Amino acid sequence: MTFKEFGLNESLLEGIDASGYENATPVQEQVIPLILSGKDIIASAQTGTGKTAAFLLPIIHKLLASRIEDQVNALVIVPTRELAVQIAQNLEGLSYFTPISSIAVYGGGDGSSFNNEKQALSKGADIVICTPGRMIAHLNMGYVKLKGLHYLVLDEADRMLDMGFYDDIMKIISYLPPVRQNLLFSATMPMKIRDLARKILHEPAEINIAISKPPARIVQNAFIVYEAQKIPLIKWLLKSTNFKSILIFCSKKHNVKQLTMELKRSRFNVKEIHSDLDQNGREEVLLEFKSRRLQILVATDILSRGIDIDNIDLVINYDVPNDGEDYIHRIGRTARAETDGVAYTFISEKEQNKFRVIEDLLGSPVTKVPVPEQFGPSPEYNPRKSRRPGGGGSGGGGGRKFSHQGGRGRH
Ligand code: AMP
Predict the structure, then answer these.
(1) What is the average pLDDT across 360-379?
(2) How far is the CA of 225 from the centre of ligand 1 (A)?
């Protein structure tokens, strides 16, 4: 389906064209007409499905007809500053040929960025993309013009609740006019999201486009190792392959720092990103990585969700992520935009059980690649049997579950 068929504003179509979009993705096909018709929406759709444009395009289109000047007309609440920046950039591209104004409001910057935000919020900006804490700081000061607000978007809602933002979200909503269109996007739909939806949404249309399994194009491998083998093995892997853009995930900041130091010592083109870096530092590193001046980026899970970097061809899980969702988000950073990708996970002895649970959720085992002989003997893969019956991820047993409605993904 083309974007013209939605009947979108011509100047918006120009921006879509300039952004290089030709046809709507499945989530866009379903969501755009519903938003245009004024419905509230609850959609399970992950990053990579085109969900950002799915809510931005109809909002921009409607604002072009009915925006109130000098007001905030739409508010998009997101869990992280990185996601806020990314959505703002996407928005800038799509709305380039329109008069729609926007601003990203997030913590971590210096005093001048707070003042810039304050100015924009008191003068009014059509679309505000914010992280919860920072928005509340502005709302508390009383100058944010919200009377005309018509659209509220909660993006990555599950992540926001995981990060403890429930009260902040409800507080922000208490400042909004009661009659508005509400759109909630979430990668997963646990009960607490449904509870939130019941409180915020009005007779919502429900859409399910979750990619509940990683795209088949990602070649998934794993090494079964002793913890002490990880560093020599990763150096060997990086030297003996020819990947141009490599993202390595560690669960802990400490591991990110240590691994980056080790790789630097071996003269790899590598940098680190984690929450100790200030906002400018993070953006600089991301830019270097996106523009491919930096070959290897070592990251905490700060980057596993929501961040859109094309052309990563290798993702390495230096340690096993805490759950299946994080695993999928991490390896989903590769194989974006129809290209192939490769993922390796390093599994130490004490991480084997955790990985087995992930494999059960995936529904099939991940290929175990033999550790080269030069590294000496390595452990057997012998995890405890998972408590999940059937191994298909649909059994009970607590924990978070995948929805199994992945067939409508973009791929
Ligand atoms: P998202 O799921 O919103 O993070 O989008 C993932 C990527 O797909 C981003 O780089 C978007 O710019 C891109 N994208 C979104 N919609 C389309 C489309 N209709 N055609 C091509 N690329 C798209």
Answers:
(1) 90
(2) 37
User: Of 208-212, 239-243, 290-294, 360-364, where does mean pLDDT reach its minimum?
Assistant: 208-212
Mutate to test the pocket of ligand 1, among 6, 12, 19 (most ligand atoms within 8 A of CB): 19
Long-range interactions of 166-172: CB distance < 8 A, separation 24+: 166/192, 166/196, 168/132, 168/133, 168/135, 168/136, 169/77, 169/132, 169/196, 170/199, 171/136, 171/139, 172/75, 172/77, 172/132, 172/135, 172/136, 172/139
Q: Are 26 and 409 in contact (CB under 8 A)?
A: yes
Name the residue with the closest Cα to ligand 1, atom 19.
24
Q: In this predicted model, what pLDDT tens digit does every residue of 98-150 receive, in sequence order?
A: 999 999 999 877 778 899 999 999 998 999 999 999 999 999 999 999 988 99
The correct answer on CATH 3.90.550.10 for the domain covering 3-210+391-404 is: no
The protein residue with its alpha carbon nearest to ligand 1, atom 1, reads 50
- C-alpha–C-alpha distance, residues 145 and 123, integer Å: 8
CATH 2.102.10.10, domain 218-375, yes or no: no
Question: Can you give the residue ranges of every domain in the chain?
Answer: 3-210+391-404, 218-375
Q: Is the pTM value of this prediction over 0.85?
A: no
Q: Give pLDDT tens digits for 102-111.
A: 999 998 777 7
For 166-198, write each residue's pLDDT tens digit.
999 999 999 999 999 999 999 888 888 989 999
**Residue listed under structure tokens 């579950």:** 401
